[in-house]
Prior knowledge:
Elements: H1 16-31, E1 57-65, H2 69-76, H3 82-95, E2 100-110, H4 115-131, E3 135-143, E4 153-164, E5 179-184, H5 193-203, E6 211-212, E7 217-218, H6 219-223, H7 231-239, E8 243-248, H8 253-257, E9 266-270, H9 279-288, H10 292-298, E10 303-309, H11 314-324, E11 329-336, E12 345-347
Parallel strand pairs: 2-3, 9-12
Antiparallel strand pairs: 1-4, 2-4, 5-10, 5-11, 6-7, 8-10, 9-11
Helix pairs in contact: 1-4, 3-4, 7-11
Amino acid sequence: MPARKPVSYREAGVDIDAADQAVGRIKELAGRTLNRNVLTDIGAFGAGYLLSGFKQPVLISSADGVGTKLKVAFMTGRHNTVGEDLVNHCVNDIAVHGAVPLFFLDYLAVGHLNPPVAAEVVEGIARGCRNNGCALIGGETAEMPGFYGEGEYDLAGFIVGAVERRRMLTGDRTVAGDVLLGLPSTGLHTNGYSLARRLLFDIARHVPDTFIKELSSTIGDELLRVHRSYLKPIQALLKARVLKGAAHITGGGITGNTPRMLPSGLAAEVRLGTWPVLPVFELLRELGELGDEDYRRTFNLGLGLILAVGQKDVSKAECILDKLGEPYYVVGRVIRRPRGRKARVIYR
Length: 348
């Protein structure tokens, strides 16, 4: 039997040289986010972080992905913003509990590793970490031939933050009569993209470069607007002791997320027309002929964060937001849940 030619890892679809090239760039980008609390170098088997400055810390963690917004990145060839989306989404998920982010880890999975694309993705992650004062201390880049389509990848993130136990936001201090303030989103953020892509690309037959007058932008630009971070306004309100609860408006929309900051027995009365619904949502509603329930449970409708503030503290909260240059809207109030009503968000 003739001797067989050895089969290399490269021939099996994994290019170690390309991986080394990508890792070198990733180390450089991640290194710019490190601080004195990071005790290990990028590339160690595990990452060490010294928790300091807290008396009774509660660690708050979260994990998430970017979802099918990645499909828009593939279509446009623009990969330097989805990483920032990922970081900001994760930051917001722990910020609504009062936590400040400590460190972040990413998971990038590809079929075939393209070092420049990987570097673009991590560039966005590193930028998001720097902007939020968070250290990118590690992660994983997995090359899995045959698992993803050509030019495709998946992206996930893991964040750990901390908050003093006495300052932790759980929503248990929220009471009937509290005022709901809404902070604007920049667009779809990272939710509703499966429906949005279906409506814009399959039904309306648009392409990413299609310019839409109502949006004052192309479809690609609109869909790739960065999911913003709300860390600064949350921390400012928390420091002033005026914040009772906060809800990050992600998948499930206002309907699904606002109740997550409310104690049992309470509901949110949301006043329609008290904030500007972004044109992209009106466009999607028209294209899909969406009913109210689906519309409100799929998209954020222009509000990325809803805050609960006591009536006597509203003026103080508004003053703080004004000083930050943060737009806000009084969008409703907390009420006792009406007897016999299953809904915990009631639209008026």
